[in-house]
Design goal:
Rossmann fold; single chain; seven-stranded mixed β-sheet
């Protein structure tokens, strides 16, 4: 049974959908920088989706620093502070992770499973991104501890709305 193409949420306000700026190569950080203390880590292997998400954040006026990595292994290395992500001034811990499910090598479910096993990331908000509209993917994401689940493709209008909603959620005292 396909799931609706609207985001699903667990304990968070309704979130719409998102886009980026810059070119990401395998393992390279792409950054939409701002002076905000709260960071977003985007884990997405599709360069077009990275660009779309980064542009939407920028156009929506989101004042969050967005860092992007392109593999599940890089996401874990980033969160652990392993090289080349060890400098927390340049690679600060995120308040939110936007995590693609379908990636080569380590997929988003494996990364989510790792995140939820780390006590220091217990409160980290993780939003899963996918092209799949199968309810089993949403169920698995929630079972593993995802806070929200969004179905791609994200058009630009929905992406900008998502960016604003994520910004609002991150502004709450919870973060």
């Amino acid at each position: 049974m396909p799931i609706p193409r609207e985001p699903h949420h667990r304990g968070y306000p309704r979130l719409p959908a998102c886009p980026a700026e810059g070119v990401a190569l395998k393992g390279v950080i792409v950054e939409h920088s701002d002076t905000s203390e709260q960071q977003i880590l985007l884990v997405e292997n599709n360069q077009d989706d990275v660009l779309l998400i980064m542009r939407a954040f920028q156009r929506a006026g989101v004042k969050r620093r967005v860092q992007a990595v392109t593999t599940g292994m890089d996401a874990i290395a980033y969160l652990k502070g392993d090289a080349p992500f060890g400098d927390r001034a340049k690679c600060p811990l995120p308040s939110l992770v936007l995590l693609d499910i379908k990636m080569p090598g380590m997929d988003g479910f494996e990364v989510l499973r790792w995140i939820r096993r780390q006590s220091e990331f217990f409160g980290l908000c993780v939003v899963m991104l996918t092209n799949s509209d199968h309810i089993s993917d949403a169920n698995q994401a929630y079972h593993l501890g995802a806070n929200s689940f969004l179905v791609k493709p994200l058009d630009f209008q929905n992406a900008a709305e998502l960016a604003r909603s994520l910004d609002t959620v991150m502004s709450k005292e919870h973060y």
